[in-house]
Amino acid sequence: xxxxxxxxxxxxxxxxxxxxxxxxxxxxxxxxxxxxxxxxxxxxxxxxxxxxxxxxxxxxxxxxxxxxxxxxxxxxxxxxxxxxxxxxxxxxxxxxxxxxxxxxxxxxxxxxxxxxxxxxxxxxxxxxxxxxxxxxxxxxxxxxxxxxxxxxxxxxxxxxxxxxxxxxxxxxxxxxxxxxxxxxxxxxxxxxxxxxxxxxxxxxxxxxxxxxxxxxxxxxxxxxxxxxxxxxxxxxxxxxxxxxxxxxxxxxxxxxxxxxxxxxxxxxxxxxxxxxxxxxxxxxxxxxxxxxxxxxxxxxxxxxxxxxxxxxxxxxxxxxxxxxxxxxxxxxxxxxxxxxxxxxxxxxxxxxxxxxxxxxxxxxxxxxxx
Length: 370
Fold this sequence. Notes:
Strand order of the largest sheet: 16-15-14-13-7-12-11-8-17
Oligomer: single chain
Low-confidence stretches: none
């Protein structure tokens, strides 16, 4: 019998988790089908309606009922950022495994409490960094490990979207101080997760943050001050000796889901753009001089686990497929496989530490150590 699943939250990411839980056994075929026990949401009406749509047996307006339910083995947390810590810690203390969406928490103290609770519980606790599951990111990691581009010496990371680009967009929770720093923890954590699996840790940095709009309109008229920052950038150095640049902007008109990576080494370079997520560009200086140039690799069955979804190359995976892969890696970790490809709470805290170091640097205007 498969693990019992409880889902908290039924918005965009809650639906994404639900699709993953519904698909993981079908796609991979080597795990028991999870039992979708209960869904918790802000109200009983919302929970009941979405439980029916998502395939859960019941819904509740009190998320703590999921934590107390003995039929539930894993809690999926897809609630707003400020609730992650209380929900994850309660679930871990109740002996549940946890799959929590990023960012880990809105304060470093809360993220540390989450890490500590995971260690004490001995349960699996991972974060929703599904971009690391992309077969093309895994291919990039293999190429770097094999020395295809030599020693990495410079990295450029960008993430841009335009869902906060409109100055007339009404104020909502993502612009509130309670949701965190803004672009740094809403956005920068994603490219930082990719840096973590492709290269390693940041050791020092200097950062800046910006508000393109000081106020946003509110319902009924008037406006409210924007309490966090939609733009952030940083210069950094890594433990392995590379220099780097991070730039993130959630008010970038025209950008929809862009995470652009440029990784330069002594023998070549690798380029990736999330808006073309089934492609990877590779340049190596070992090619004959008159034939040198970037080669575009298309995702194919030779790039695991692409073949679990599609038997032919070039057809492409999407965001939700990456979440199914992440769900499979979660189940591997729960089953005792410590080589599962996940960002656990220990590594997640390292990412949060970098985010908070960037915020400190932006406030002080000086380089800081991480």
